[in-house]
Design a protein that fits this description.
Elements: H1 2-41, E1 55-57, E2 60-62, E3 71-79, E4 100-102, E5 110-116, E6 121-129, E7 139-142, H2 143-149, E8 157-163, H3 165-175, E9 200-204, E10 230-234, E11 250-251, E12 259-266, H4 269-280, E13 286-293, E14 296-306, H5 309-321, E15 328-331
Parallel strand pairs: 3-7, 4-6
Antiparallel strand pairs: 1-2, 3-8, 4-7, 5-6, 5-8, 6-11, 9-10, 12-14, 12-15, 13-14
Length: 332
């Protein structure tokens, strides 16, 4: 009898241990499943505002800065496969289906308008990454952006990139956790409205007209202003609410442009002529083109025109190998 009871007790004990272990295993499985689901459904990183220090890639120095009047023409490329879901240069998560772009020097995030000069398509995108670092490119678009601009299959496009100042300042403030307050000087940081901002109460009431008085109608220079009896609180000034939604793709007139390789730009015309002479010994079409920039005359040393982007890419590599790593593709 004792042996029977002891046996049943041992069996019950072993069964209880098995149940506990099974429960632990099930609990561990549930915890693992929950963690996996949480990691898959976690909200993407919000990122932060970043300008960054000067850096060098393939012998070329880049100098990031806040440049609120930025506008440049050049060649755009696009990226997506292999980068989708990875972190961008300012800590956001890259989505190849979003309207974003990579730029080598603009602040992150900032907002730019990109126009395909060949077909007139124009879209607004958010710059949140660094690049492109292939020679001869000025901006790298997300896959979706390239689709909308009409060059995904071709791979490259002649574009104009323009920074949108108010939108970019608003993005800067949001990334810094501040309220956007328009400032006449964009170099000054945005700041939240003061917590003790004065607000006044305006009492508006209707006064009865004196007895015998008549209301004038149609009298030149007189305006009747209805004034219901209300009490209004006047808050501190804030930015306008939501802007009028813009179309996803805008259309402009296509622009005829020519491609050049620009090897240098000088204020001294003699320096420009000397470089032109050296390049002319190896490359046909080297010349000097003066240009006015902010009241100053610069003498740009160029080679071209060149008919296709692929030909420009090959020529650019030859110029770089010849000892001019700062050479780049430009449009005119």
């Amino acid at each position: 009898m004792l042996n029977s009871i002891a046996g049943r007790w041992v069996s019950a004990l072993l069964l209880g241990v098995a149940v506990v272990l099974a429960g632990c295993a099930e609990t561990e499985l549930l915890v693992h499943t929950a963690k996996t689901a949480k990691s898959q459904n976690a909200a993407p990183a919000t990122g932060y505002y970043k300008v960054g220090n000067a850096y060098q890639i393939q012998g070329v120095w880049y100098y990031p800065k806040e440049e609120w009047d930025y506008s440049e023409t050049g060649i755009a490329s696009w990226y997506g496969p292999g980068f989708h879901g990875k972190s961008t240069a300012n800590g956001e998560v890259f989505n190849e289906n979003a309207l974003t772009a990579a730029h080598r020097t603009l602040p992150m995030p900032s907002i730019v308008r990109v126009t395909n000069l060949d077909n007139g398509r124009s879209i607004v995108v958010r710059v949140n990454d660094r690049g492109p670092f292939a020679h001869g490119r000025i901006i790298d678009m997300s896959r979706r952006s390239a689709q909308l601009l009409g060059f995904m299959n071709k791979g490259t496009a002649k574009v104009r990139v323009e920074l949108l100042e108010p939108e970019s300042l608003r993005e800067r403030a949001a990334a810094q956790g501040l309220d956007y307050v328009p400032s006449p000087d964009p170099k000054l940081p945005s700041a939240p409205a003061p917590s003790a901002a004065p607000s006044g109460s305006v009492q508006v009431a209707v006064l009865n007209a004196p007895s015998g008085a008549r209301t004038a109608r149609g009298t030149p220079g007189a305006t009747a202003i209805p004034a219901p009896a209300v009490t209004a609180s006047v808050p501190a000034a804030r930015a306008p609410a939501t802007d009028t939604p813009r179309p996803l793709v805008s259309r402009t007139k296509p622009e005829a442009t020519q491609i050049y390789i620009q090897a240098g730009s000088f204020e001294d015309p003699d320096n420009a002529q000397r470089l032109t002479g050296r390049l002319g010994a190896y490359f046909q079409g080297a010349h000097v083109k003066p240009a006015e920039v902010s009241g100053k005359t610069f003498y740009r040393v160029r080679i071209g025109p060149i008919n296709e982007v692929d030909n420009a890419d090959r020529l650019l590599e030859r110029v770089i190998v010849a000892g001019y790593p700062g050479a780049r593709i430009v449009l005119d």
